[in-house]
Amino acid sequence: MRALLRGLWQQRRARYGLALVLALCGLAVLAPWLAPHDPVSQLDLARGQYLAPSMLHPFGTDFFSRDLLSRVLYGARISLSIAFLSVFLSVTVGTAVGMTAGLAGGAVDAVLMRGVDAALAVPRVFLLLVVVALWDNVGVAGLIAVLGFTNWFDTSRIVRAEVLSIKHRTYVTAAQALGVGPRRLAVRHLLPNVAAPVIVTATLGIGQIILIEAGLSYLGVGVPPPTPSWGSIIQEGQQALAVAPWVATFPGIAIVVTVVGFSLLGDGLRDALDPTTR
Amino acid sequence: MIVFLVATLTFVLLHVAPGDPFTRASDATLVPQEVIQQQRRNFGLDQPIYVQYRRYLTNLARGDFGYSFREHRPAAAAIVERIPNTLLLAAVALVIAFALGVFVGAVQATRRGSAADDLLSLLSLTLYSMPVFWLGVMLLLLFGVALDWFPVGGVVDDTIYPYLSPLGRVWDRVQHLMLPAVTLGVVGAAVTARYQRAAMLDVVGQDFIRTARAKGLQERAVFFKHALRNALLPVITLFGLSFPLLLSGSVLVETVFAWPGIGKLAVDAIHGRDYAVVTAVAIIAAIMVVVGNLLADVLYRVVDPRTREAQ
Questions:
Q1: Is A215 in contact with B2 (Cβ distance < 8 A)?
Q2: A243 CB near a chain B CB, below 8 Å?
Q3: pLDDT at B311 exceeding the cut of 50
Q4: Are B95 and B184 in contact, with CB atoms under 8 Å apart?
Q5: pLDDT, position B26
Q6: Do the Cβ atoms of A218 and B131 come within 8 Å?
């Protein structure tokens, strides 16, 4: 762990990534104290519509006179929690499936991996669109579940490959010879060794999930209004592009900064964990 | 096989979801219950599920995707009408993505570590991290609204198109195509450039490049005939993989620019719960992905003689 952090710290880009990610998580956690206004309260419908950015409203206001800075800050909370939880879900499922396939081998392995192959071939956005749109008001919890359960295929492949490569190492054989059961073997001896690539894919995956969630919300099938989500704010902003270009602009910048942060951190982690790519 | 799986999956999803087309389209207070029942009977929605499934599959095999409730015509007709638009957009975007991406990636690799390389890496990382629909909205804001160089949506300008000369019509179409294609293409180019840069760096370190230089070939010949050709292999693999990405992207980009392709059709159909169109689009998308992979295999064989000799 120490060595990992040091390896991470030695790379300039990874440092930026870590700083960005930590800063964004801080902003998201502290949103209720940092936001100048309530994200959903309509401040002044008569005179407060589409106010340009000013000292009072640094990002301006939207059609309902809501403060955009507050909405973008709260949007960070929503987007990051959805991303973290759904990636946690997909990593858990993916690791479990990959481990099972790798350890069991034979028919179990074949069935699981052919299933993963087929799932990976389906254009994912179409699948997500169908699922999310058919259940009216899936809500945030539903969205997390759907994103998580459609995102574990890559992880399971990586974990399986990793398990296969270490399954016949001498320390595993030694543990087996000492009478360690399969469950204990998986948890105590294999899991720590597959953790590294899983952490990397998870970090990069968070960025991708943020993009996908934003896309779904933009299409109107993601986070339901009036909850502020970056994707749906952009959608609202597009309606008034000529009148109030700031509404669509700021949440997009927030998305780019967040995803860049996670990409830099993920690449950095990969290099720190795998010295051969350095 | 994949197509069959997708067909089954979409069917299951559609029927597991609560409600059917008539629970949303008809307000219960306005339409008598008998009429709704009648409609359900007409479309066979009152049959047991396995009957519906069997009929659905046999119809699919005959190329019949069912009837679109919203457009009051066969779903296949609605899709066939939209496919050329999507293919045109995707093809132009693909050309932009690969031409620009291969060029930028190769340039970066030859100037490794320079300021230009760093800058381009940062740029492609940013583009790669950008929601494609937001890029579209921003381009729309800049070139459509602020500068007014390009139209803000659609394939043609409906009000003046019928009165334009043939050349004017082509120009009108090109203008409408510009922004969506660039949006979709530039994001693809960022991905391609990352791959191309890595592949080039991998190749230039190898022995045959040194040999080529050692036998006195000009730097340009080394670059084009030896390095670039070999570095293209992983990029062609990417070409096959980029089809699902391109289709996903086109759903969003078509929505941004009101481009009447199958992506936009799918979104509209989902909001209107148009069973037949949703399943049909998902199946068509799966077919396009399979064809894309096939195309990549063929290209691979053309570019890499080793795969041909292995046969």
A1: no
A2: no
A3: no
A4: no
A5: 46
A6: yes
How far apart CA B185 and CA B89 sit, in angstroms, is 9
B129 in A contact zone (CB under 8 Å): yes
Whole-structure pTM value: 0.81
Q: From the CA of B265, how many Å to the nearest CA of chain A?
A: 12
**Mean pLDDT of all residues belonging to chain A:** 78
The CA distance from A127 to A248, in Å, is 27
H or E stretch at B67: strand B67-68
Contacts of A136 in chain B (CB under 8 A): 18-19
Among chain A residues, the shortest Cα distance to B126 is held by A260
Structure tokens belonging to residue B281 = 């689009």
Residue B73 three-state SS: strand
Question: What's the pLDDT tens digit per position in A70-92?
Answer: 788 888 888 888 889 999 999 99
pLDDT digits over A189-210, tens only? 777 778 888 888 888 888 888 9
Measured CA to CA, the distance from residue B193 to residue B191 in angstroms comes to 5
Sorted by sequence, the CB contacts under 8 Å of residue A172 that are 6+ apart come out as A166, A185, A189, A190
Q: What is the pLDDT of residues A13-48, one digit of tens each?
A: 778 888 888 888 888 777 777 767 776 666 666 666
Query: Which carries the bigger pLDDT value, residue B49 or residue B295?
Result: B295
Interchain CB distance below 8 Å, B273 and A127: no
DSSP alpha helices (H): ranges in A57-190? 68-104, 106-121, 124-134, 139-149, 153-166, 170-177, 182-184
ipTM of the modeled complex:
0.79
Nearest CA to B7 among B47, B63, B82? B63
Query: Taken in order B34, B40, B42, B44, is the CA torsion positive or negative?
Result: negative
Residue A129 near residue B251, CB atoms below 8 Å: yes
Which residue of B123, B133, B284, B293 is the best one to mutate when testing the A interface, meaning the one whose CB has the most A CBs within 10 A? B133
Q: Give me the residue from B5, B138, B285 closest to A252, CB to CB.
A: B138
